[in-house]
Amino acid sequence: MNPSSAPSQTPQEKVPSVRHEVSGTSIINYLKHFDKTGVRATMRQRVSPETAVYFDKLILRTSWVPRSVLDDIYAAVAMDGGEDAVRRFSLEVTRDGYGPMVRQFTETLLALIGASPATIFSRFGSIGGMYEHGTEYSYTARSPRSGELVVRLVEPAPRLVFVAWEGIFQFAFELTREQGTVEPVQVSEGGRVGLFHLRW
Length: 200
Fold this sequence. Notes:
Blueprint lengths: L20 E3 H14 L2 H7 L2 H8 L7 E3 L1 H11 L3 H32 L3 H5 L2 H5 L3 E2 L1 E9 L2 E8 L5 H17 L5 E2 L3 E3 L4 E7 L1
Antiparallel strand pairs: 1-2, 1-3, 4-5, 5-8, 6-8, 7-8
Helix pairs in contact: 1-5, 4-5, 5-8
């Protein structure tokens, strides 16, 4: 891929669900992080009773969970530092929980197409689709070292859900060993669309 060829967009991902759902793997990774940092009990007290159920029961990696569980978890994390806490939490969970699998996938991709963050961002639907339903990703290159990534949801989401993607996208820079920045997301259409400006 040549990131300087603009505008560059991935084919639109088909929305596989009328609801925004996340994989059981995602919830398992969040809970493992809470265990690692010793805050699982605290976080359980902060979330709604409907979400607290997921702290107690066996979750299958192949299951799908309503996104409202994420809404509660991010709100609980934000109590300890606002949006910065959510960004940091998202980056750490992505690095520890998804890192090994995603790293293997992206290293193959980067070897075939090119070791640039744009390679990952322009194909983010292939990665994100493994862990979410009801999400579309569209990347447009703005220069050889910058671009815009739009995340579109089938259901409106609180701002913190989009803020969490900032941490995820920061991990893409780590994978390519680039010093990159993700500007604060611009949320529109009543919480259905997030626009991310990316530079490296």
